[in-house]
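[Automated response] Your request has been received and processed.

Submitted sequence:
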Amino acid sequence: MKKHTYILRIFTLLLLIPMLGYTQNQQKTTVAIPYGNNAQKGHYFATGGIKLYYEIYGKGAPLLLIHGNGGSIRDWRYQIPYFSKYYTVIAVDSRSQGKSVDTSGVLHYEQMADDFAALLTQLKIDSAYVVGWSDGGINGLLLAIRHPEKVKKMAITGANLRPDSTAVIQDGATMITEELVRLRALQQDAATKNTIKLMHMMEVEPNIPLTDLHKISCPVLVMGGDYDVIKPAHTLEIFQHIPKAFLWILPGSGHGTPHKFKTEFNQKIRHFFTHPYQKPAWIDWEP
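Generated structure:
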């Protein structure tokens, strides 16, 4: 794997997967279904000047999965088999990633959120459950802000509202900046240009005001690792500004919660989706 691709996947929102101590487990796992490259399940939808690639699995209420920066549908390989037993799972390659090619020079999170809303409309889905990881969590928040009717309930992990050090650990932000300097000095082939575009977006975006979170009307499960590249204090800040939210900080986890804690992650989200949202009292134990 090229160095710039490795750095991108570490610090562009599927950060730390090779460094979280479960690489060995991943190597032992055989993926029978080619998630992200499944000709039998794959489709394209033309929107916003691109063809958005997605795959559909299972039956039931619709559930949209949105991956992180530099990722693809395959990043949900531990979630699709589980959730497709209960839902119609719609896993999407975000624009400029996976099979969703976008040759434009700039990229914005709002643009991607609008892509997902358009896809749901195309599929005649009024509202869906949404799970977003990292950049996918950012996109999920923006989807709920810009297209509130499209989101029934949402679970996000490792999302941020700002690109600065109030939200992202300094080492992560520094490495992104340094890697962009290195990439811009290289010969600009298509792959390098695309990587720069993705990383630059992450360097300067998102810029979501806290007041915009007040517009989110659906229940949201806000998650993150206690050693996430997104500071736990920032994850708490997101939780505190969403009217109907629960918070789950996973102990002993970095940014890769859907992989390292896949069983707990899946079950917790399933429970959240299937139970009515109700804020607990500060004393909630049984006598």
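Summary generated for your ticket: The chain is about 35% helix and 20% strand. The chain has one domain: 3-274.
If you did not submit this request, please reply to this message.
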